[in-house]
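quick one, two chains, predict together pls
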Amino acid sequence: MSKKEDFVKFDKVDKSYDGKVLVVKDLNLDIEEGEFVTMLGPSGSGKTTCLMMLAGFETPTNGEIYLDNNPISNIPPHKRGIGMVFQNYALFPHMTVFENLAFPLKVRKMSQVEIEKKVDKALSMVSLGGFANRMPGQLSGGQQQRVAVARALVFDPSVVLMDEPLGALDKNLRESMQYEIKHIHESIGVTVVYVTHDQGEALTMSNRIAVFNDGKVQQLSSPDKLYEEPVNSFVAEFIGENNTFGGEVSEISNGTCRVKLEKGEIIANPISVKSVGEKTTVSIRPERALINPKDKMDNNQKGKIEEIIYHGDHTRVRLNLLGNSEFILKVPNSSQNLDIKLGNEINIGWNSHDARALDPK
Amino acid sequence: MSSETGKILTTDGIPLEESLKQSEKKNKIKAFLLVAPLLLFLIITYMIPIGDMFSRSIDDKMVTNMLPKTYKAMENWDGKELPPEEVFEAFYLDYKILVKNKTAGKLQTQLNYEKNGFKSVLKKLARKQKKFEEGNYKEQIMKVHKRWRNVEYWRAIKRRAPSYTYSKYLKGIDMYSNEDGKIVQVSEDRRIHRILWIRTVEVAFFVTLFCFLMAYPIAHLLATLPMKYSNLLMICVLLPFWTSLLVRTASWMILLQQQGIVNDFFVWIGLVADDNRPEMMYNKTGTYVAMTQILLPFMVLPLYSVMKTISPSLMRAGKSLGATPATAFFKVYFPLTIPGIGAGCLLVFILAIGYYITPALVGGASGTLISNQIAYHMKSTLDWSFASAMGLMLLTGVLVIYWIYNKLVGVDNIKLG
């Protein structure tokens, strides 16, 4: 059976709560069957609204959502067969773990034997085998989270939605849960739509990430592409660290362009600039700029070290470069004894390919 | 933990427990001083009156104190036949003092409670005894009225000998102990208290039910509406709370009377004929309507405070797991509101069972409750001991309900806010 490419489809979806402001604007999004898609964005960007529309708790103001080619706007949430993991777990506090997991099976009128079998399986999947008779209040946050995940999966839904499920956990637990959810996804192949504002989480877990801002999907691509090749300055800024220069295009040819800054000029990769005279923001990842590069690079500048911050595995160096006093470099701690001292002038080089000339901020 | 650790010492060598006690002593005293005024207030205004009520309800010293010589003389009388001369003499001497001090009236009333017709014979005796000669009081007294020859009347006096009695409690449930000391029901046409008790419980039950049915949706709305609307609604719920109880009850009288607004409206929309307006006041209907309205906030507030804590995502979770909205409500939402329901119902029921003003004003004959009867005995018949007995029975009833509630639901599950 081939996987459907548009298993979940948002088709020209608009959403407004008050008739004045569009929270979601003309959203078009196809999610493949079995895919792990993350909606990533700052709060208020419309990502949770999209999830709620998919779950059926909000209705699109315009447009239609299709699940397996069926329009679902008029189907109430309980008939959609979509599992959901909520931000605060939403476990039923008056039921045991077993009863929580049995709930979706009971309302589907399954036999007691079948229910027990399925609940056992789901609990062992999240390695909570012995916890069936506990009340949710007796579990730790991480355990509650796992129960919530198991409950959303126990009735074999075709799609599982997760609304910032790890937001309430501490850092270490969050990381281990990320892997756990990722592994569960890989082992049962369910389609997952995941909402978060934590880019690390998104990069770790997803097949594809949809970056939301201002009610629109800014970019939808795999984690590596998103990081390496952001298509606009919002994505570049939002994902990972980023050094930027604002300027104007002075020359454009053969896949490179020259950008004139207030002080100096750099060669960049024209992504969203088309003609001479356009304003642009050039974005360079900190790890792409090197100190005293051995290979020849087409950008070479001198910068003055203003701050050095020790980070264990690497050292962050803040430079004043071409009038940008926030230029960050990441220097691995293993490396050669470079001349990194406060106040020193050093040579910095980067390839024009890695300097992406994007839309102006 | 190992049991052999023994006493743990602080660095100064004082046992840890002692050191802890000492350091907390100040806090304990402070805490006690903070609650002391309230404790004192409670003792004075609550414990003492209840104790007084109890002693009043069983106190029967009045008659005993009025006839000291008589009761002393009666000690050897077996009560089978007419008492001997000493008893008559003692009674004459006691009664003479009472007549002289003008306190004979009380004795007459009290003995009349015990035996009907006592009042008139005692009054006659009060007039005649002035002319009594010394000696052979038995003959002289019996001459005053033939009832003095009836041993029943003497037995009635003897029955009042103990200083304590539970007869008021028996009276509260329409029973009494008859001449032979057996506990029997009063004649059928005089059984009024039992009807009142049943009616009180019935009214309290239905008022609680109506309050619950009306408050649940309101509380739900209050808990789920956005702030600006819920505040307005909250004020609407509380507004009656801030109005005088009397005013509210009076306004119900204006609304519900036969020529009142509600009846006018019914006639106007053609629901009832003008000459056949239903009576909605001075009966149970009026009591139900007015009490439900007045007690509604007591149901809304505990429900609201519980519902406020229920995360809306729980209902969503229920629905997303495949439950219809109704199933999700009854399996998820409703069980979580039980602590609020328990608190609200208990509060309203207990308030309703002792309610006074509203039934007194709008209840009429068929809508008055036991508290009205208590007030009647406090103010009109001045039978305080009976009023106290009924008050205590009411209190006991409430405690029993509380106990049953605790067994069924568990008081720990109550949430008042």
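The CA atoms of residues 145 and 259 of chain B lie 57 Å apart.
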